Structures are given as C-alpha cells and as structure tokens.
Amino acid sequence: MADYRELERGALEEEYSSVLSDYNRHKAANLSLDMSRGKPDRCQLDLSQAMLGVIDSPADCLSETGLDCRNYGLLDGIPEAKRLFADLLDLQPEELIVCGNSSLNIMYDTVVRCMLYGSDRETGPWGMGEKIRFLCPAPGYDRHFAICESLGIEMIPVAMTPTGPDMDEVERLTASDPAIKGIWCVPKYSNPEGVTYSDETVRRFAALKPAASDFRIFWDNAYIVHDLYDEGDRLLNLPALVRGTPNEDMVYEFASTSKITFPGSGVSVIASSRKNIEYIKSIMTVQTIGCDKLNMLRHVKFFGGVEGIYRHMKRHAAIIRPKFEAVLSAFDRELAPLGVASWTKPRGGYFISLNTLPGCARRVYDLMKEAGVTMTAVGAAFPYGRDPLDSNLRIAPTYPSLEEVKAATEVLVTAVKLASLEQYLGRPARA
Amino acid sequence: MADYRELERGALEEEYSSVLSDYNRHKAANLSLDMSRGKPDRCQLDLSQAMLGVIDSPADCLSETGLDCRNYGLLDGIPEAKRLFADLLDLQPEELIVCGNSSLNIMYDTVVRCMLYGSDRETGPWGMGEKIRFLCPAPGYDRHFAICESLGIEMIPVAMTPTGPDMDEVERLTASDPAIKGIWCVPKYSNPEGVTYSDETVRRFAALKPAASDFRIFWDNAYIVHDLYDEGDRLLNLPALVRGTPNEDMVYEFASTSKITFPGSGVSVIASSRKNIEYIKSIMTVQTIGCDKLNMLRHVKFFGGVEGIYRHMKRHAAIIRPKFEAVLSAFDRELAPLGVASWTKPRGGYFISLNTLPGCARRVYDLMKEAGVTMTAVGAAFPYGRDPLDSNLRIAPTYPSLEEVKAATEVLVTAVKLASLEQYLGRPARA
C-alpha cells in the first residue's frame, strides 16, 4: 500500500475498484454492530455481579453509624460512601455529596441550580436576562453540549490539543467576557480523544482569572480510574490545587461508578469547596430527602476500599484493552501508510477519535451504516452537532465483542479508504 | 373529667396543678421520641427485606424484553415496571415514566421544567418575568410548600375541608388569576389530615377552567394504597377523568414505593397525558440516560403484580393501625370530654392532624420538646410555615414502637391540657 497522496490517477482508480469490491463484500456480510456509545460489554458487568448479593439481612442494611439505610435520611450520603469517594478523588469527605445513579443528572442539576439560584448566595442567578455562555473544548462529550443547547446556553468551541484545551484561548475568553459562566472538561482520557490534561494545563485552570466572579469549571472526571495499562495517565488534582486559593469555589468535580460497576445502577458524586457543598445541600434538601443509600452501601461493601476499586479496574482493562488495540493495530496497518487519516492512541477511557480527510466523516458514517455498523452521529462531539471540518469520528470499541470490534474495524478502514478515494477522484458519493 | 369551658376558675386552678404534676412526672421520665416525620418503623421495612435478594445472577438482570438492566438505556423505565405502576394507578403504561427513588425529586424537577422550558411546547416558560403563584390547600405537605418557597413561587393558601380543598375558592382563584400556575394536592389520606377528596371534589378538579392555559394540578398520590383498614377510602381517578377532555394535559400524578418497600430505595413514577409524557421525556433525555432499572426489576419480581402490592400493604396496616388507634383512643378518652381540641380520624396515610385551642400549638410543641418528644415543627403544614391560628399539630405515629407511641401520646394529651389551662387561666407560659 502506498500513500494515496502520491498516487497517480490511474493507480487511484485501480485502488478504488479494489476497495469498492472489499466494501461490497463487507456489506454482503449483513453485519449488525453498534460502536456508537461508550457502553460496557456484558462481561464487564459480570465483574460486579457479586455486588448485588452483599446486602441481604436487615443488619446488612445498617451504616457504620447504625443508621438504617433502608429508611429516609442523610442527604449527602452515608459516611462510608463519602470516605470511599473522598479516597478515590483524593479529597476530604466534607468536600463531596454522594448522589444517585447518574453523574449526568448531577451536572444538569448543577447548571440548573446556577441558573435558578446562582452559583452561590452572593451573586445572582445566571439566567437573569443576560445571555450565558459556556466554553466547550471540542471535540468533547455530546451530552455536555446537549445540556447547554437544551437550556439555551450559548456554546463557544475551544480547540483541543494533545495537552488539553487551548489554554491561551480559555484564558483570553474567560478574562474578557463576563457572560462566560462555565467550561466543560473531561480532564482524564477525554471523550472522545482520550487526552489527559497536562500538569501545565491543570495549573493554568487553577490560576484562571475569569471576568465572571461566578464562573465555574465543570470537571467531569468520568474516567478517573479507567486506565487500560498498569501505568495510567496521571492527572493533577484540580480541586486540591485551588483549595485555600481565591479560586477555591471555582471547580465542580463529577465522577461515578457507572463504568466501574453498573451503568444503570451506579453511584455518582459531586465534589467542590466546602462552601459550595454546603450551599448545594441547602438547595438539594428541597429537591429530595436523599439518594439511594442501600446502593451506596452495596458499593462500599463490595469494594472494601479504594484499593478494591483499583484491583477491579484492572479486570475491566483486561477486557477492554484488546479491543482498543485491535482498532489501533488495524489503523496502523491499514490506514497509516495511506496518509488519509489520523487518530488518537488513548491509554484509558472509552473512546478513540479518528480524523478523516476534511469533508469525509459523514460519508464514512453513511458507508458504515449501509454496511450495518452504527457509529456515533457525525458532529456529535461538537457544539450544536457541527464539526466544522466534517472530519471527526468517535469510535466506541467497548460494547461489541473483540471479534465484532475486529470485524467492524475492518469495515471502518475500508470505508475510510473508499471515502478518501472518492474525494481524491472527485467522484460523487453514491446515493 | 369535665369540659374545661364549663369549669369555674377554682376548678381550673385545681385541674392545672394536677395536670402540671402529671407533666412534670412525664418530663422526669426522660423520654427521647420522634413523632416528627412520616417514617416507617423498622419492622415495616423488614417486610420488604426479601426484595433485596430477588436479583442475583446476570440472567436475573434481564428485562422481559431481554434488555440488560445493569447497562445504560431505557429513559422511561423497563416495560414490566411501567405495567406494574400502570396497574397501580389504573392508567396506561404510555401515560407514565418510572423514575428513581424520590417522587419529591420528580415533583421538584417538574416545577423546574415548567419554569425553564414551559409546561408544553406551545406556551412559554412559567418564569418569564411575571410572578408565579400556586394554590396550597392548607394544612398540607411541608415539602410541597418548600419547593414553592425555594423557587420564589408565591403560595396562596386554600382551606381544607373534610371533602378536600375548598373548591369554590379553587375555582374562583384559578378562573380569575392567570398567574396561578399550579395547585398541590395529596388527594388520598392527605398529609396531614388524612382526608380523601370526595368524588365531587375530584370531578370539580377535572372540570376546572383556569385562566392560565398552562395551569397544572400536582396530584401527589403518596398514599394511594396506604389503607389502615380492609375497606380503604376510594378516590376517583383524576388522570382517567380528564383523558380525552380539553383538560387532558392539566394533571401530573405522582406516586412511589417509598412507603411500600424502602423510603431510601424505592421507585417513583410520574403519570400524565401521553402528550405531556412525550414532552417530559424530550427534556429528561438531556438530564439523564435513565434511572435505576435493577431496582425497578427488584420491585417487579418481589411483588409479581399489583395484587402483590395490595397483600403487602395489609401487612403494613397490621403494624401501623394499632399505633393510629392508640393515639385516637387516648384523644377520645383524655381530650374529647374537655372541649379543648379536635382531630381527624384517618383511615389511611401516615398522619393525624390535631387542632388545639387557637394560640396553643406552639406551646404544646415546646412542652413536648421539653419532655423529650420531637413533634413536626409548628406551622410546617402551612405555606411559609405560618399557621394563622397557631392551632395545628401534625402527629406522625408510625416510626416509634407501639409502646413509645402510647407513651408519647400520654405526654401529648397532658401537654394539650396544660397549654389549654394556661390559656384559660391567663398564665404566662413558663420559660
């Protein structure tokens, strides 16, 4: 195989008809695969099956304080769950609230709370007349962007780099525009690129001087322990960095066990300064009497402590890692020589980000769909669903089996080749 | 014992010193009891203990459709849970969404959704500049009122009668004021009086002609199957009554298993017109990927069907009923002859409402506190915590044991006598 950019038209034509016949062969196989969402595979879920049995008798349902977790009470979570998450996040139990099964829901609630009540007692609600803006490092997590779009918050894209968001832009924009109230970050193994923010990036976040005194960093640490290799990426602890500084109240950190135990039945957490946590609790107490404490207890008893989580995540990695490697080795083998695509090589998280030639991503998506493989919607990783280059594809290799990932990746490299050749040859995309 | 109203001053003085010595005796007993909240007793929770064991193997975690309930997905709940709640509410599965552990949280979210997005796609958000008002039948549920107060919604009290809210007032106010966007109702075994709305009341709700086209009835059916006796009160089905009428979209019904299985780990539901449910889902999908499906499955497997819930509630009643009866028989015996108080005699729910002489409720609360019994805060059952007559006390007899309920009620009748005598004698309340 040769670099497409160096091929003459005749050779391109020849390659095209060969790739087209490959593609038609794949299509004839009638695949039905889903690589669209970051869902764990069934055998990852089996790893946590024993968690469902750790609470049985009424005595099992007591918290270490003697509180009956079956009954009402305890807005911020049981103490042992707070301690487990404090260990996981390397923070103090007073700096967090343990919540229900969805960290997305806490993020949504946090934005809504700022809009209706304000981010603290002193400044007013965000939504008082003026336009609100959020910085959105892109590509990023589509569900973050959906929250902004749904609530009418204007999104300003900021480019992602291999060390995190373009911090020059982040500093410049936050310093100059008081309507910018927040920024979405997935700082470790970012969705979809798998980038971990560098120490310098995190330190610059800690030292931001935003024009809005009620500016907040939404630090979605969704992949905090989701390493694929024994030596994981290392992320600086932003909430700890700002503790005791004038920016102490600027950070909301989120995490969950959705991709540690069960996506539908995990436990989530919000962490922030003590002042913010007290303020959040003062509003949350109107909203609910408390979250599911029995499920918190299940998690605590199942893991024993944070070391139990670390051990558990190695078992996840053993299942996921071969899938990532299958995708990456196919890309290296099939695409690298051609000069028609680039991709990230994450050492954790749930996604690989593939960049095609500009203007080819939608075509690849359609070709995949036609061949029975569902990919994440093109543009999903960008604010308003608009990828300005039509180049980015998010690959979620965890849900299908290893064999299915291999099969889907074979189709994918063929589709990337075909779309690239169509572009080079100026061929109109077929219907 | 004689009617205090007929006693001469000398006899009142004599009674006073006798009651005071009773009270001091109670105080010396150093009780520590809590009758403040509608919490189930521990042995009620034990009734549902087996529910925690019904899901064990991975195969147990599959919904009837084959969907793995451990994983992401299914925003509106698993089909078998929707069917169970549809049977419970006597509605269609398409008319409801099964949610997480807190119906209070759904109510809060529902008000917030109306404020930020509007109650439908056509009318605007409730919060656009103009003042919003809610009708609040009083006495009522303090947490409903806390939602309004927290969100800056003005509360207009409407008197409760033995057949429900004063419907003349409800009709008059909703018809004349377009700023009135909602009303809070606990239509069966109301909190705190235990009143079940009469058929006429429910029919008048169904036929309301509110000035605000986006007016909504918040029908919190918290005690839908919480009968104390085999023959429970019968409530007309408001969502079914409005179905197919111009008021079809006017009702949100809420329910939960908080007081059926576990208060901390139950399942909740919102029901409304199909149009409203579709609209709610279109916004909820931004908020979360879905609620805890494993817990829904636990409930379905534990109960088998709605008949299982009915059987289960009889076991609850067997525990609770003697506590209600202990309170009521003490009132009948000790207070009825004196003419200083009136109370409700609920046939279900979690509360008894006691009305003292005007101006005595706070004094009774303080006397109880001094004697080691925590009652619900005085005024809690009224908007802004203000009982205009200082007369109402909410009694929650479920949480303490039967012996404790008897002991606390003895103190309570003594405190009511003492406060009444202080008032008749013009004695200043002691420090």
Could you explain how this protein is built, in words?
- The structure is a homodimer of 431-residue chains.
- Chain A has helices at 9-28, 42-46, 79-89, 103-116, 142-150, 167-176, 199-206, 238-242, 274-287, 293-303, 306-335, 361-370, 402-425; strands at 33-35, 96-98, 133-138, 154-161, 164-165, 180-185, 216-220, 251-256, 268-271, 341-343, 352-356, 373-375, 392-395.
- Chain A folds into two domains: 4-45 and 310-425, Alpha-Beta Complex (Aspartate Aminotransferase, domain 1), CATH 3.90.1150.10; 63-304, 3-Layer(aba) Sandwich (Aspartate Aminotransferase, domain 2), CATH 3.40.640.
- The mean pLDDT of chain A is 96.
- Chain A is built from 13 helices and 13 strands.
- The two termini of chain A are 28 Å apart.
- In chain A, α1 packs antiparallel against α13 (402-425), α11 (306-335) packs parallel to α13 and α12 crosses α13.
- The first copy, chain A, is of the alpha/beta class and 431 residues long.
- The first copy, chain A, is globular, with a radius of gyration of 23 Å.
- An eight-stranded mixed beta sheet of chain A has the order 2-9-8-7-6-3-4-5, sandwiched between helices.
- In chain A, a hairpin with a 2-residue loop joins β4 and β5.
- At the A-B interface, α2, α4, α5, α9 and α10 of A face α2, α4, α5, α9 and α10 of B.
